[in-house]
Write a structure and sequence with these properties.
With 80 residues, the protein is mainly alpha-helical. Helix content is 49%, strand content 11%.
Length: 80
């Protein structure tokens, strides 16, 4: 807990507003959630699918996006 308080104090010393600090924590949490997404291969041609949509939904919220705006059903190997 002392490390968290040190980081929090550092933000205040550097002049971050509380809203900015919360945004930093929200993005950090989103990154951690997105790191937990599991993918499964449907077949080699179509890419893969997301197996745990709850982590995608939680991670998307942290970036202030909507899950349905993302291609949640399939993740392709290439970029169109």
């Amino acid at each position: 807990m002392a490390r968290f308080e040190s980081v929090e104090n550092g933000f205040h010393i550097l002049g971050f507003r509380i809203e900015e600090i919360h945004a930093i924590y929200r993005v950090l949490a989103a990154i951690l959630h997105l790191g937990e997404i599991r993918f499964g291969m449907e077949n080699e041609e179509d890419g893969c699918s997301i197996k745990n949509h709850d982590e995608l939904e939680t991670g998307s919220y942290g970036f202030s996006t909507q899950e349905d705006n993302q291609n949640e059903d399939e993740v392709f190997n290439g970029v169109s």
